[in-house]
Design goal:
alpha+beta; two-stranded antiparallel ribbon; rod-shaped
C-alpha cells in the first residue's frame, strides 16, 4: 500500500455537501510544517521513546481524522434531511392552504344554493298565495253578482 485515502462528504453551507478525499498516509511533511505550533517558550518534554511517541501520536491523529470525517458526513446528511423536511413542511402548508380555500369556496357555494332555494320556495309560496287570494276574490265577486 503506497497511500491511504479517506473518502467522505464535506458539509458546505446549509444547502450543499460535496464528496471529498483526504490523504491520511503517507503524512505530508509540508502540511505538518504549516500547522501552527503551540505558544510556548520551551520544547515539550516526554518520557517515552521517540518511536513509541510517534506511534501514539499517529494513532491519535488517525482517530481524530476518522472522527472528523464521520462528523462531517453526519452533519452533511442531517443538513440534507433537514432541508428535505423543511421543504416537505412548506409543501404541506401550501397544500393545506389550497384545500382550506377550496373547502371555503364550496361551502359558500352550498350556502348560496340553499339560500336561493329558500328564496325561490318563498317566491313560489307568495305567488301561489296571491293566486289563491285572487281566485277567492274572483269567486266572491261572481257569487255577489
Amino acid at each position: 500500500v503506497t497511500q491511504v485515502l479517506l473518502f467522505h462528504n464535506r458539509h458546505r453551507g446549509s444547502e450543499s455537501h460535496e464528496p471529498t478525499s483526504t490523504r491520511l498516509l503517507p503524512l505530508d511533511p509540508d502540511a505538518l510544517c504549516r500547522e501552527p505550533s503551540a505558544p510556548s517558550r520551551s520544547l515539550p518534554g516526554y518520557a517515552v521513546g521517540r518511536a513509541e511517541l510517534l506511534a501514539a501520536l499517529l494513532r491519535e491523529w488517525l482517530f481524530v481524522e476518522l472522527f472528523r470525517a464521520c462528523a462531517e458526513s453526519l452533519a452533511s446528511e442531517h443538513a440534507s434531511r433537514l432541508l428535505a423536511m423543511q421543504a416537505a413542511e412548506r409543501n404541506i402548508a401550501d397544500r393545506l392552504a389550497e384545500l382550506n380555500t377550496t373547502y371555503r369556496q364550496q361551502r359558500q357555494e352550498a350556502i348560496t344554493a340553499e339560500l336561493l332555494d329558500v328564496v325561490a320556495g318563498f317566491e313560489v309560496l307568495v305567488t301561489a298565495g296571491d293566486r289563491r287570494e285572487k281566485s277567492r276574490r274572483d269567486d266572491e265577486g261572481e257569487s255577489e253578482g
